[in-house]
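Regression test attached.
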Amino acid sequence: MTKRKPARTAVATPAPEREQRLPIEAIRAAAFQQFAERGYPVVTVRDIMKACGLTQGALYNHFKSKDELLHDIIASTQGELERVCQQAVAGAGDDPRAKLAAFVRVYVMRHCRLRVEALVANREIGWLDAGRVADIRRSRRAIRDVVVGILKQGVENGLFAPPLTGGRLDLKAIAMALLDQWTHVSMWYGPGGTIAEEEMARLYADMALRAVGARP
Amino acid sequence: MTKRKPARTAVATPAPEREQRLPIEAIRAAAFQQFAERGYPVVTVRDIMKACGLTQGALYNHFKSKDELLHDIIASTQGELERVCQQAVAGAGDDPRAKLAAFVRVYVMRHCRLRVEALVANREIGWLDAGRVADIRRSRRAIRDVVVGILKQGVENGLFAPPLTGGRLDLKAIAMALLDQWTHVSMWYGPGGTIAEEEMARLYADMALRAVGARP
DNA sequence: ATTGCCCCTGAACGGTCGTTCATTTGGCGG
DNA sequence: CCGCCAAATGAACGACCGTTCAGGGGCAAT
């Protein structure tokens, strides 16, 4: 994100990368990579299109604007995240401890494995104009509410005993704190690290269950 | 951060804001505000200077470049954060539980109170060029190592029993996870919220002590 | 009154940006 | 072999960027 010019790692193939089947998919992939590495506002349309072997003008055969391209790739990532999270919870039985563990496992592993996509979806959302940003925020709130729901169930069943906030129980704040932790794994987890995704997910699940005071 | 043009909230005073004593301080304050609201790359030099009643060229009487301005305000924030964190730990006695609680308290309260500064220091660091980013990263590592040190002491004294990662104890990963949580309070905590800074700090300290398995 | 200095002004410069569009390309059904 | 149309080209456009710089006060010391 530091240098403003593309890194140009190698000059072996004049047509960079291997040919993607659909040009629109190649554009999406190149945009993901470049937005993640250098940030939306400094990545130019020319950069993206050069990275998939086309010229600037060709972008507008597939997207109305650079802004729509960003929304497209963020929305697809965010939508699938919401889907897999809800699916993980739904398939974890009735025990809120199992639900929370399943949620953390899916959420953290996805943020490790799809590091680039998660990074773009979480960091570049602010560049969308007001109209497009609304449904992304809605999806985020939905995910947060899934966590709040699990916590609420656990508290009602007497299985969770989370810390209080000023004498009161604020599950929304706790859910935000936990989600911040899980989300930002994508900022520093690297495949070069010594910890496998599986172990990462386990660590975070353990910490979450302890933080909310889950009965053993 | 969405709109590219300054918000222009009111037109009451043609000279916006009240007069700051030193122009250089006014520039710093305006830059903080604008970078936090809209992001470094889309805030222009003209925007910043207009916000403190000057014209573009005057910036270069105080800073060598826009880049140096960003580094200046980030480095001062980061430096003071490092200072207050180390001071909090030093003045908390020998019990690692008290040290950790004191650290979290200072760190979280600072990220609530100085929301704007924390936001800029954490989000805009990537726009600095490689030379300037180095000492910011060093300071961040130093802060992380303070946390790792507290955890290590607690484990050695048998006062902390943190979760394992693949059979091994990875204090660095745990410290990163906790710091992510504490740092990103500045992303969603607002003075409009119903939770006071004090209670926020207490909540996060409670969660941290539970997460690392502190003995009661 | 004059000097020197600091600070500010605002036009100007060379680039680069997102986007448009007239034109060319290329593959395919007939 | 022809016509067709979606898709790609690359020059062009207007706007705006960070930075420079010659010129112009204002004010303290001389």
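Expected vs. actual: identical. Residues 73-211 of chain B form a domain with the Tetracycline Repressor; domain 2 fold (CATH 1.10.357.10).
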